[in-house]
Amino acid sequence: MDFNYYDKLYINSHAKELAKVNNSGGDYIDNVYMWHTSLIDDPPYVSLAIFFNYCSLGCATCCNRALLSGMGGCTPFHLSDIDKHKDIIDSITIVGGEPFAQDLTNIRNILQRSKDLGLRTNALTNGLHLWEPEVRKLWPLIDHINLHVTEEFVGLGLYDRVDELPFDVDYNVIWHPNNIPFVLDCMGLLDGEKFFIKKDFMFGGEKYIPTKI
């Protein structure tokens, strides 16, 4: 079965890279891990993606080892960039790397500015930090969480704990009691020698990570 993993990388081939901004202005986000902004498709929305350059997992199928290590470089970013694009976007997506492994003050400022502008807010996360007290404080600012289940943790019980739900429920969309939807965008399960992926997602999953090829 052909899963076309790398045809569905999160930043699509037809995405438009935004121009770099200068360092002036008091709303500058001083975070070396925030390095890239692109316009992406977030069906049915147009989303501004803010990519954070660090993740602690070290998955074997990681598409960019430089970004994983935090050595991918930095593009200056201002909160005013969100203002400049608010008329042509519907949402903001924080992605990585792992956005919640960063300076949470910066994350809060981005989410709050987006909500103040009436934009939908999304987070693509591996879920490891979601239940930390300081991250939980951000939940009211997040409309949607795309939970990226990676191969090392599938079937090991981690996401049973994170979701506070067993895997034998309908895992297409899992709802947390706070009414934040978790869409498992690469829930791969091993059934003997057969590997299958659930693809009918509410929030277009755009990166598929195999547990077995």
TrEMBL record:
InterPro entries: Aldolase_TIM (IPR013785), rSAM_sf (IPR058240)
Protein's organism: Methanobrevibacter curvatus
Domain of life: Archaea
High-level lineage: Archaea, Methanobacteriati, Methanobacteriota, Methanomada group, Methanobacteria
CDD domains documented for this protein: Radical_SAM
Protein name per the record: 7-carboxy-7-deazaguanine synthase
